[in-house]
Amino acid sequence: MVKRIMVVDDAAFMRMTLKNILQSGGYEVCGEAESGAEAVKRYEELKPDLVTMDIVMLDRDGIQASKNILEKDPQAKILIVSAMGQQHLIVEAIQTGAKGFIIKPFNPNTVLQEVKRILGE
Amino acid sequence: MEFSQYKELFIGESEEIISSLNNNLVNLESNPSDLSLLQEIFRLIHTLKGMAATMGYQRMSTLAHALETLLDVLRRGVIEADKEIMDKLFQGVDKFSQIIEVIKKGEEESSVEIEDLIETLKDINVGDIKTGIKPTEVGGGFEERRVLRLDEEDRKMIKESLEKGEKTYQVTLAIERESLLKQARAFTALSVAQDMGKIIKPHYIANQIKQEKFGRLVVFFLTSKHTPEEIRNKLVLVPEIEKVDVKILDINLLLPLKKEKETEKKETETLKVSQTIRVKVNHLDNLMNLIGELVIDKTRLIEISRSLEDKVLSDTISRLNNLISALQDEMIVLRLVPLAYIFGHFPRMMRDIAAREAKEIDFIIEGEDIGVDRTVLDEINEPLIHLLRNAVSHGVESPAVRKAKGKKERGTIRLKAAREKNYVAIEVSDDGKGINIDNLKKVAVEKGFFTQSEVERMKDEDILNVIFLPGFSTKEKSSFVSGRGVGMDVVKDKVTALGGTVHIETKEERGTKVTIRLPVNMAIIEVLLVRVGKYIYCLPLVSIIEIIKISKNEVKKIDNTEVVNYRGTVLPIIRLEEKFGAVGRLLTSTLEEEKETVSYQDDGLSVVVAESAGKVAGLVVDKLIGQQDIVVKNLPSALRKIKGIGGATILGKGEVVLVLDLNSLIS
């Protein structure tokens, strides 16, 4: 069965880039969200196998969104997406329960490897 | 700003720190988890770093910084100092010494190469695979390194998980050097591990990682029901994780954490002790000379006051006399430097020699707080090094041989100093093979020091003294450390030049002990004043055994040498007048010639029996004058080569008299 992934990012360009990478890797991008609040709402609707979560969005709520999702579903698999220089935020997210992180700009192979690892494939 | 005025101070203090570092490192080697030692080493390196940076010695401070980083990892208990780390630390300290040597010569510190060492230090800091760790092999690698600081609660947790059939693993991760977000990677890996079991002290580990200094090595304990392979396979998948080592933890390795409080206490103690100031040695020497002059003038003043018989004057002078004596005592104390100053270098040296000779030794130092005169200290260093080297290479046997003999595999070498009245006795003893007297006799005959019949008549103690003769060495091949063609004769020469004595004792298979006795104070010595012919000589009291009175006809002649029977042994007689008549005149001819004409009253002879390096001789004198403290002055270089004369001094009436060097006179 094809694994379903939700992409959360406030920049449409980043969502598109990620979507293309994920699809090239044989994954289905089942939904997108452009804010933390939207991500939490859509997670419940979509129940994706994995979420890529931009850590710094307009409302800076990537971490809060991750927390909220994990509260509702402790098994949620969240992959943090970040730019350089946000190490403390990444650490915080991982301590919250995120499973891994990828750094912009993306290397398609790295992204896919990390997704695969977190999905336990 | 001109720093040159501080340079000397910098060098002196650096050398002390380096010496202290070496000692602490030697101790650390046998107590790798001693937190207070690690703290102290860290502190010393940190001090050195600050000093070097202030002086603008960039390389020195860079190296100190690299070592400090490693020390910080060590003291935080992430890894333990194994042999490899110890070697690197020692190498680092050696580099400091080299840099200091270079600076002393006024050269640029850049001539000392430190880059390679710094590179390897970086690798240790991050647990690089190049350092002999093979993290890819489950159960292999990271042998000596372990996470410390587990408390009772952690042990309990480990015990419980063991009871549940789980295992406790020591997990070591190396994150790729190029990784830009090493902390985040480390946390990712930790979260993966957490999914497979329980991390012991997770907050502690997290804090370790959050501190920027963590480098790229993460070590933690994990209790888990998974196999090592399963854990490793999961962790390896985390991006930018270069190597993973998972091994089953030996529960015995978990050492309890030592209390930090002790260290703090120690630090404040050392602060109190260091209420000292530094003084240039030549100032001390000048002061000593001035006090010497003062002592001489005082003696003259006393003579003058005696002849004037003025109550007020003699009272004043008596008070002055007391003050000068007190000053003199204080001066002696001021010049005393604890033996620790040189002893401090020995543990490191012994470690290196033992390693090179593949011997195992426990090196024990006692009495390093005993003070000796600075001059003595400088001169005694080399002889002691020689004796210590001998003890390692010729004394203590190899571990295998010792085992075969039923001895402990580790030999013991002891360096012990003790105060004996005005002397300091320094012993170097070992529990090695000792000296084979028969072998010694054989070599003594072969080398032509004695004939076979002489050797047969000699007592063991006398035969042992052969070792001190120039050109004698029972070791055929000169070994790297102890050979070098110089031997015990050099030791003896140095020590006797200082007015000291050397004594050797040995027991086959039990060991050898060499004892050096040295005067505490070099410049002011006690002498016996004697008159020979018209002239007065000073005989250092150190070497004098007793004074005997004999009748002239007791003197016999053997092979052109005059001898007397002295307590059943043959005592050679030296007639000082024949030996020094001319020299004495030369120096004293300017002085008052009013001395009473010498009367060879009866046919009795006063003989001063003196000993030096095991040899005894009798010195014939005409009159014994008395005992006195004198200040020895060096002779001008033209006169210095005269055998048997050690210096001169000025007596109360202003006469210049010669101080005899009994050592060279007797031997």
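qc> Residues 4-119 of chain A form a domain with the Rossmann fold fold (CATH 3.40.50.2300).
qc> done
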